[in-house]
């Protein structure tokens, strides 16, 4: 066996050009697969960062009356579970929050986990430096300012050895760093990680509740702030442990009939990516689909590479037919020859795999880094060489060898000794049996496969183009968006209200500024809010089935609370009615009013007389019509700032429909409140300039910055950019673009390989047929006749490849249609452009050798004996 | 209109390879009349094949003039030369040079298709040529299924199917045993009797006797012209 490899090495070294080409082709094919595999592995298969994951389960609190409804736990309930359960060795509680962390002069928003003191011991991972939280630090309102940071957070701070024990500003207050987690620890999720951990004792001081109705203090039994995770005793599974938990839930319900009414407990393993109070987040199915798709694409690239190489080997083999015939004639067995040829193939694979492996590690890191820049949460990707990646790459090499090496080896080792010894090296002897079939089925297959990928790529590129051109419905050309959060600096709501009001009026009177307005959310922002509204008056119970707005049906609506000048600032003139007055916008005590958009107005009053009517917020369990609103956070009814569920609200204006995020199924259905009625800590200021040339943008931004400093030097600026930049940084848009980029890379690789394949096969065919072409020329074939002969054969090959490819592309389009952004699976542009590009490239790849054929000198051709 | 078919004046051919000049032909004068059967003889490397490829417009002389059928042919474009090759010249090679994946019939038909001849005419001409060389019954075979002698007969049929002005044969019997060689020579002699102009390179003095005259070449020059006794 070893001697086989030694001989294979010598043979390959003799043709360095061929070897280099083959290794390059394989490196592309195998590298693409290793890169994708390393991502998919991290996404779907890599074990979580906590130890013995089979024992780790989350406790879910389910409503027995409404089984689809889940909620979190209060701290006292968590204590009961921890103390009274019989199935866990230990149970911990935590919640996520966003906090402002001071870094130099800046405040950065990071995800924080607020955790019970045993959080780390339950997960089985202790800080690499320093200590975990102490039990007393967990006590509600104990308020010991200590923080544990992630390895990547520490690295962002220069891996300073003195970082442990130093002070860190969190929400405007100094915390002592007591621990640094080991590298790769991502808490309860995979791939995504919080950057800091705080003890439950500071919960009431830092939790921003941006996403929920957790307005209760942590010690209050009515709260639902916490998620509970336990480590099962050895031998237990979620299923075997659940009955004991249900019993515990029943006991608690007896003990606390109000707080625990209708609550039972469920156990399930953690979602890989989500942190939720409900089990079975569906993101994993989507991830699996995405992963499969990526692996499939990469697989096709490898297949194309293998087909390509098989062709090269066949071509080389024809030239070696004589050598092989001589060896067979000398008595070598067919198996021996086969082994020899496969050894050569495997050696090529290994070399390609080695190069591809390095390229893959590098490109996967690059991709994740690019993704990370657009994510609001820290991505912790463990790149680098891992045993599982080595194994996968080796697997691709073996697959590759079989895919590209076996067919040529079988064909060559069959060897018709006599014919091969006699024939002119490399010429066709005899007639091909199926003459109407294209000469090179492997190239046809390559063309077909790469056309499928290329069409998919074009579909995605079209989607990305449409996404980038998306019309928000706003006129925001000269608009800056300033994002601040006074509560991150530790201010109270009352202080923040005054601060925001001052800032808004100062921004409005800046030189060059046309108008400015506060808003609690921005279209295409990270967070969107939903409310459910219905006509004032009727409140149908959960069991009723109202069919119309008049019967009390409630509707989802995108929710925004804005300043008096909002509609003017974002270029959205009201269709009917009036804007908010300055008093309404700034005073909590003003009567409740709202502006709704045309879509919501039509839903609530289909007759078209919504203006001047009154509406109300629906209760949590009210029947709601499908559709409307956003995919964002839905606030429950008892969390609505100044407007209480029982108040009725007058509709004072009707606004045009606006698009609020990229993947919105249905545009519109929005309700706007005066900011004073819907206060929020995290706010945006729209600042519209009278004129704003690109050259002036930096100065304008500086002007805004200076104003913020003048109003309050300690107010953290979370972001400041033009509306165009804001849209450009949208995560959804990035996803669409990343999809397009990935598909383009794979489509481009496949296209490149196929074109090289076509060129190789044609160039080789022309070289091989030199004599025949010489004869034809001697018999009077004009150069143009020779050109046409070669191109005609190429056309047959290309046409069959393209027809097959279009069929494959149809299937691929159907497959990816769910991931496409506003592009049909049969998009005529994509199905025209992709085949044209491929045909043009492939035709050129044929034309060059064909033209070379016309330059053949018949005298020289006929002399070769 | 003269009865001279081929007229060479001062034809020289110099090959340049790696700075080395090879004078394959040096000042050849030659005059071949319509209906003549000329054999060319000389030692290996003296320039016989080079001369023949110039006569067949596969190559052009470095110097000198070539008049074919009263028409100067140096300085013609590649397509024009191809057209003249197709209509005026029939080649017979030592190694037959049939196209392996075309049938016997298709090989013979090939030069006629390049002429743009209608299918029916092509069929008549190709069939006639094959009958003439006695290979009509093998029309559907592939070259690899024929013996060397048979392949050369097919090559002759291919050369004469288009009724060219001249047949050029470069050692047509070189790859054949003497029996097959004899019969191919017999075939050429018959064609000559039927009026064909033939220029043939041969080493074999036996076959040279079939010709009207033999031109001896040495080192790229005509050294002797000899009228064959048989005629
Ligand atoms: N393309 C070429 N490049 C360089 N030299 C050439 C080329 N063709 C022919 N020659 C040289 O020209 C000379 C004449 O060659 P040619 O083939 O005409 O000889 P020949 O008389 O046909 O010989 P033989 O009887 O062996 O076939 C030789 O010396 C040969 O090496
Ligand atoms: Mg010769």
Layout of secondary structure:
The complex is a heterodimer of chains A (865) and B (231).
Chain A: H1 2-14, H2 16-45, E1 56-63, E2 70-71, H3 75-84, E3 88-103, E4 106-115, H4 119-123, E5 129-130, E6 146-149, H5 151-156, E7 167-170, E8 173-180, E9 192-193, E10 196-199, H6 203-206, E11 227-232, H7 238-255, E12 263-268, H8 283-329, H9 334-374, E13 378-379, H10 387-414, H11 417-422, H12 441-468, E14 479-485, H13 493-508, E15 513-519, E16 529-535, E17 554-562, H14 566-569, E18 576-577, H15 582-586, E19 593-597, H16 598-604, E20 614-617, E21 624-628, E22 633-634, E23 649-655, E24 670-674, E25 682-689, H17 697-711, E26 717-722, H18 723-728, H19 731-768, H20 770-778, H21 783-816, H22 828-854, H23 858-863
Parallel strand pairs in A: 4-10, 6-8, 16-22, 17-21, 17-24, 19-23
Antiparallel strand pairs in A: 1-2, 1-11, 1-12, 3-4, 3-11, 5-8, 6-10, 7-8, 9-13, 14-25, 14-26, 15-25, 16-17, 16-20, 18-23, 19-24, 20-23
Chain B: E1 4-17, E2 20-33, E3 37-41, H1 48-55, E4 63-68, E5 71-72, H2 78-88, E6 89-92, H3 104-114, H4 119-132, H5 148-161, E7 166-170, H6 178-193, E8 197-201, H7 205-208, E9 213-218, E10 221-227
Helix pairs in contact in B: 3-4, 3-5, 4-5, 5-6
Bound molecules: adenosine-5'-triphosphate (ATP) and magnesium ion.
Adenosine-5'-triphosphate binds next to strand 1, strand 2 and helix 1 of chain B.
Number of domains of chain B: 1
Q: State the oligomer.
A: heterodimer
| First-to-last CA distance of chain A | 38 Å
What would you report as the Rg of chain B, rounded to the nearest angstrom?
A: 17 Å
So what's the CATH class of chain B?
Answer: Alpha Beta
What gross morphology of chain B would you assign?
Answer: globular
Question: How many individual β-strands of chain B?
Answer: 10
* Number of helical elements of chain B: 7
């Amino acid at each position: 066996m070893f001697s086989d490899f030694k001989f294979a090495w010598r043979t390959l070294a003799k043709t360095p050009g061929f070897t280099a080409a083959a290794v390059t082709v394989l490196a592309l094919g195998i590298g693409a697969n290793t890169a994708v595999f390393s991502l998919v592995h991290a996404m779907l298969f890599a074990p979580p960062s906590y130890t013995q994951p089979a024992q780790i389960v989350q406790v879910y609190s389910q409503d027995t009356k409404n089984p689809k409804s889940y909620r979190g736990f209060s701290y006292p309930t968590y204590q009961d579970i921890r103390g009274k359960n019989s199935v866990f060795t230990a149970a911990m509680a935590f919640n996520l929050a966003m906090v402002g962390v001071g870094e130099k002069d800046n405040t950065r928003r990071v995800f924080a986990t607020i955790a019970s003191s045993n959080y780390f011991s339950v997960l089985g991972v202790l800080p690499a430096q320093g200590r975990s939280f102490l039990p007393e630090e967990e006590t509600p309102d104990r308020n010991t300012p200590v923080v544990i940071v992630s390895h990547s957070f520490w690295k962002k701070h220069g891996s300073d050895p003195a970082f442990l024990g130093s002070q860190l500003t969190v929400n405007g207050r100094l915390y002592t760093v007591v621990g640094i987690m080991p590298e790769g620890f991502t808490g309860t999720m995979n791939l995504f990680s919080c950057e800091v951990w705080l003890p439950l004792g500071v919960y009431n001081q830092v939790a921003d509740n941006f996403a929920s109705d957790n307005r209760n203090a942590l010690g209050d039994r009515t709260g639902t702030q916490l998620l509970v995770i336990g480590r099962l005793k050895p031998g237990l599974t979620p299923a075997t442990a659940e009955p004991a938990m249900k019993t515990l839930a029943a006991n608690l319900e007896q003990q606390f009939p109000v707080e625990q009414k209708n609550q039972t407990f469920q156990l399930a393993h953690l979602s890989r990516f989500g942190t939720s109070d409900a089990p079975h987040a569906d993101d994993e199915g989507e991830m699996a689909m995405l992963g499969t798709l990526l692996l499939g694409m990469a697989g096709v690239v490898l297949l194309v590479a293998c087909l390509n190489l098989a062709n090269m080997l066949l071509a080389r083999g024809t030239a070696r037919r004589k050598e092989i015939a001589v060896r067979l004639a000398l008595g070598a067995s067919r198996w021996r020859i086969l082994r020899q040829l496969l050894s050569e193939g495997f050696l090529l694979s290994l070399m390609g795999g080695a190069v591809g492996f390095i390229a893959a590690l590098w490109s996967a890191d690059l991709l994740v880094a690019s993704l990370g820049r657009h994510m609001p949460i820290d991505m912790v990707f463990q790149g680098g060489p891992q045993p599982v990646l080595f194994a996968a790459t080796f697997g691709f090499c073996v697959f590759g060898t079989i895919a590209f090496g076996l067919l040529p080896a079988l064909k060559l080792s069959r060897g018709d000794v006599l014919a091969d010894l006699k024939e002119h090296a490399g010429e066709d002897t005899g007639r091909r049996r199926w003459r109407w079939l294209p000469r090179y089925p492997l190239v046809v297959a390559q063309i077909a496969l790469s056309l499928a990928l290329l069409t998919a790529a074009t579909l995605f590129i079209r989607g990305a183009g449409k996404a980038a051109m998306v019309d928000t419905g706003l006129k925001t050309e000269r608009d800056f968006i300033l994002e601040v959060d006074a509560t991150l600096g530790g201010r109270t709501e009352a202080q923040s209200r005054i601060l925001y009001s001052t800032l808004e009026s100062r921004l409005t009177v800046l030189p060059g500024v046309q108008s400015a307005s506060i808003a609690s959310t921005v279209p295409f922002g990270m967070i969107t809010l939903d409310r459910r509204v219905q006509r004032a008056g009727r409140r149908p119970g959960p069991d009723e089935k109202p069919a119309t707005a008049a019967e009390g049906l409630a509707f989802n609506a995108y929710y925004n609370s804005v300043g008096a000048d909002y509609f003017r600032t974002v270029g959205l003139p009201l269709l009917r009615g009036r804007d908010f007055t300055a008093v309404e916008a700034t005073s909590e005590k003003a009567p409740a009013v709202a502006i709704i958009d045309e879509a919501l107005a039509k839903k609530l009053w289909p007759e078209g007389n919504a203006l001047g009517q009154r509406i109300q917020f629906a209760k949590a369990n009210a029947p709601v019509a499908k559709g409307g609103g956003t995919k964002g956070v839905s606030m429950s009814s008892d969390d609505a700032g100044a407007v209480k569920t029982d108040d009725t609200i007058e509709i004072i204006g009707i606004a045009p429909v606006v698009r609020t995020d990229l993947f919105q199924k249905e545009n519109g259905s929005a309700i706007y409140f005066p900011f004073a009625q819907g206060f929020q800590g995290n706010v945006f200021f729209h600042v519209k300039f009278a004129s704003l040339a690109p050259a002036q943008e930096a100065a304008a931004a500086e002007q805004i910055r200076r104003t913020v400093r003048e109003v309050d030097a300690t107010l953290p600026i979370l972001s400041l950019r033009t509306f165009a930049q804001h849209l450009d940084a949208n995560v959804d848009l990035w996803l669409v673009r990343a999809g397009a980029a990935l598909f383009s890379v794979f489509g481009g690789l496949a296209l490149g390989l196929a074109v090289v394949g076509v060129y190789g096969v044609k160039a080789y065919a022309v070289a091989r047929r030199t004599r025949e072409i010489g004869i034809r020329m001697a018999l009077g074939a004009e150069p143009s006749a020779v050109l046409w002969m070669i191109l005609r054969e190429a056309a047959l090959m290309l046409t069959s490849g393209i027809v097959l490819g279009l069929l494959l592309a149809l299937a691929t389009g159907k497959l990816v249609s769910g991931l496409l952004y506003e592009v049909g699976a049969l998009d005529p542009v994509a199905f025209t452009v992709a085949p044209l590009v491929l045909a043009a490239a492939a035709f050129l790849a044929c034309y060059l050798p064909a033209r070379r054929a016309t330059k053949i000198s018949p005298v020289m051709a006929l002399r070769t004996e | 209109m003269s009865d001279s078919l081929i007229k060479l004046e001062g034809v020289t051919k110099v090959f340049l390879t790696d700075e080395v000049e090879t004078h394959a032909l040096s000042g050849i004068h030659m005059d071949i009349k319509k209906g003549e059967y000329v054999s060319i003889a000389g030692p290996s490397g003296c320039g016989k094949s080079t001369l023949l490829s110039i006569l067949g417009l596969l190559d052009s002389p470095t110097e000198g003039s070539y008049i074919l059928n009263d028409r100067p042919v140096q300085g013609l474009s590649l397509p024009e030369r191809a057209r003249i090759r197709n209509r005026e010249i029939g080649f017979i090679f030592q190694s037959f040079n049939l196209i392996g994946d075309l049938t016997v019939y298709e090989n013979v038909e090939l030069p006629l298709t390049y002429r743009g001849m209608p299918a029916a005419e092509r069929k008549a001409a190709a069939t006639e040529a094959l009958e003439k060389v006695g290979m009509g019954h093998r029309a559907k075979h592939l070259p690899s299924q024929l013996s060397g002698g048979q392949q050369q007969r097919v090559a002759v049929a291919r050369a004469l199917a288009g009724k060219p002005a001249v047949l050029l044969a470069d050692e047509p019997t070189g790859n054949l045993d003497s029996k097959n060689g004899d019969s191919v020579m017999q075939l050429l002699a018959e064609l000559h009797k039927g009026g064909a102009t033939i220029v043939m390179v041969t080493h074999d003095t036996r076959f040279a006797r079939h010709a009207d005259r033999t031109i001896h070449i040495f080192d790229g020059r005509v050294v002797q012209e000899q009228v064959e006794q048989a005629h």
